[in-house]
Input
Amino acid sequence: MSKYLNSLFGLEGKVAIVVGASRGIGMSIAEGLFNAGAEVYGFGRTKTSELIKTPKFEYKSVDFLKNENIVNEFSIIKKSRGSINILVNAAGITIPNDSSVDSFRKTFKTNLYLAYESSIIFAELKEDSSFASIINITSIGAEIGFPNNPAYIASKAALKNMTKGLAIDFADKKIRVNNISPGYIDTAMTKDSLLDAEKKKRRLNRMIIKRWGKTKDVVGASIFLASDSSSYMTGTDITIDGGWIANGLTE
Output
């Protein structure tokens, strides 16, 4: 990275936490922040031995939904490193074709409540006067409806607008809060649609850029939102969907 680009996007000296870093978008973001110079700590429920690939960052298997203490984990990092500058809330699940109350509750606990708790603890631990950044991973499902998955749609829409509220609430602490809203990205979560020829065709017809997204397509935006180049951005959304939402006419 050239000196100029490093001054814009370099994350040297920054400490980042990525919740949901065991695979997919979360892992790619964690590796991207690491490659941009940040010291990265990733958390996820997947056991280290079961990871799809070995991450470059420091990873710990925990299940925050089973009351493993987020405060303790974050505090250990802060005590060791002095401060935490970046938080990425990338943990997410989807349980399509299941309209049960239990599944709805589980989806909200993972997609919304965990992001809220992590963000609150992150803000409470912040003591220095430097700017910090929270990045929430939402979805185009926060903008438009999809069938047979009301819990996912509702939880991502709630996360999108929670971000805007926290951007206001955390402003005095110099914490910026923004969203990245991916479209159809090739991950374990979307594998069934990708492998189904008819579903894949219907989804490609919605996209202006005629390909499935890769997790690396989300990395640049995450580095931008984590860096000082986005210092005048808070409470907003970056959509990475191949033009899905913009496409008003489909074949």
